[in-house]
Design goal:
By secondary structure, the chain is α/β, with parallel strands linked by helices. The protein has two domains: 180 residues, Rossmann fold (3-Layer(aba) Sandwich), CATH 3.40.50; 212 residues, CoaB-like (Rossmann fold), CATH 3.40.50. 32% of the residues lie in helices and 22% in strands. It is built from 13 helices and 21 strands. The strands form six sheets. It has an eight-stranded mixed sheet with strand order 12-11-8-13-16-17-19-20, sandwiched between helices. Strand 16, helix 12 and strand 17 form a beta-alpha-beta unit. The longest helix is centred in the C-terminal third of the chain and has 17 residues. The chain is globular.
Length: 406
């Protein structure tokens, strides 16, 4: 899997930096081309000369060329490498670098390159136990995981401080296998494709305070956007109100109501190749939203009657304008699941429908896993086992990619 691949190895400051030499050797032995990028702190633990010799490429430390007369291409090397790479691994990833990457800092070559990176990003944190378990570090790791970064959990054992606990850099062969796994799951088969993803719930106002909505977290749609971007697509994500970070290399449009989402989808639709309608839009909205908050004391009796009006059918609306686009719908069903999903597939002229039941273990609202059944235009039914939503997203894209090539 690594033969012929372009791998960027980022090395940050920490005692585990000496293991980066072993990583370079293993990647090169497997036939990969390796470009090492180091922070200045990393040079206190291993020399650039060592890593340059092992990789056959000069290790990069500085953002700017040493001399003004150097070619101007030196000034855009972070952009060139961001496109060149098939994957970027940062091992060890220090608490400081994790914090910088999580919040978009670009104060050295490594962090600047991360912002320009189009390939999957893998981080292997290594630090003392208390630093790893610190709430701030865990928040930063969660933020990166939500945005589509792959995190290799640190190993437990004796640390340089003399303490024993989690924080060790895993063995190099385990890290290499993890990177191989990422490359196996993430292909660059969507380069040059424009993908539109909808995600999350919509909120239909009753008054300025209350709304009609649902329990969708948006995690499945965000996983689809992240997976498509990592496979080289130009991704636009239209999202209802959620508490999720925008996936890397993704353009995001925030909306609140179904009508707002419909308008955004209609505007973006003509220029895309693939639409993944993962949003759980509200089918109905209050017929006459109130301009001020409804007071309980203002009601007569115990009942409050709310009249609802049908919302626009976004999928049907774009299906009527379809030219060469691939349309994928999502069906959330709790009974007669396959029958109802097939009906949606036919009525809305879809190329594929992804079915799931929120009452099934591992497939509920807000979970990090999902259990889906994929139904193709030819009515083939394939149920996938429970897996992480990012892996579900890639399985869906694996079945869509051939349709885009046909």
């Amino acid at each position: 899997m690594l033969s012929g691949k372009h791998i960027i190895l980022g090395v940050t400051g920490g005692i585990a930096a000496y293991k980066s030499a072993l990583l370079v050797r293993e990647f090169v032995r497997a036939g990969a081309e390796v470009q090492v990028v180091m922070t200045k702190a990393a040079t206190h633990f291993i020399t650039p000369l060592t890593l340059s010799t092992l990789s056959g490429r000069e290790a990069i430390l500085e953002m700017f060329p040493a001399a003004p007369e150097e070619p101007t291409t030196q000034w855009t090397k972070h952009i060139d490498l961001g496109v060149w790479a098939d994957v970027m691994l940062i091992a060890p990833a220090s608490a400081n670098s994790i914090a910088k990457i999580a919040h978009g800092f670009s104060d050295n070559f490594l962090t600047t390159l991360v912002l320009a990176l189009r390939a999957p990003l893998v981080l292997s944190p290594a630090m003392d136990m208390d630093m790893w378990q610190n709430e701030t570090t865990q928040d930063n790791v969660d933020r990166l995981r939500q945005s589509g970064c792959h995190i290799i959990p640190p190993a437990a054992g004796e640390l340089a401080s003399g303490l024993t606990g989690p924080g060790r850099l895993p063995d190099p062969d385990m890290i290499v296998r993890y990177v191989e796994g990422v490359l196996t799951r993430v292909h660059q088969d969507l380069r040059g494709r424009r993908v539109l993803v909808t995600a999350g719930p919509t909120q239909e106002p009753i008054d300025p305070v209350r709304y009609v909505g649902n329990r969708s977290s948006g995690k499945m749609g965000f996983a689809l956007a992240s997976a498509a971007a990592q496979r080289g697509a130009e991704v636009t994500l239209i999202s209802g109100p959620v508490s999720l970070h925008t996936p890397r290399n993704t353009r995001r449009i925030d909306v609140t109501t179904t009508e707002e989402m419909s308008g955004a989808v209609q505007r973006e639709f003509p220029s895309v190749d693939l639409v993944l309608m993962a949003a759980a839009v509200a089918d109905f909205r209050p017929a006459e939203p109130l301009s001020s908050k409804v007071k309980r004391d203002s009601l007569r009796g115990e009942l409050f009657t709310l009249q609802l009006r049908k919302n626009p059918d976004i999928l049907r609306g774009i299906a009527e304008r379809k030219t060469n686009q691939i349309l994928v719908g999502f069906a959330l069903e709790t009974e007669n699941e396959v029958l109802n999903a097939r009906k949606k597939l036919q009525e809305k002229q879809l190329d594929m429908v992804v079915l799931n039941n929120p009452q099934e273990p591992g497939a509920g609202f807000g979970t990090d896993t999902n259990v889906v059944t994929i139904i193709s235009a030819s009515a083939d039914v394939e149920k996938l086992p429970r897996m992480a939503k990012f892996d579900v997203a890639n399985e869906i894209l694996n079945r869509i990619a051939p349709l885009l090539r046909s």
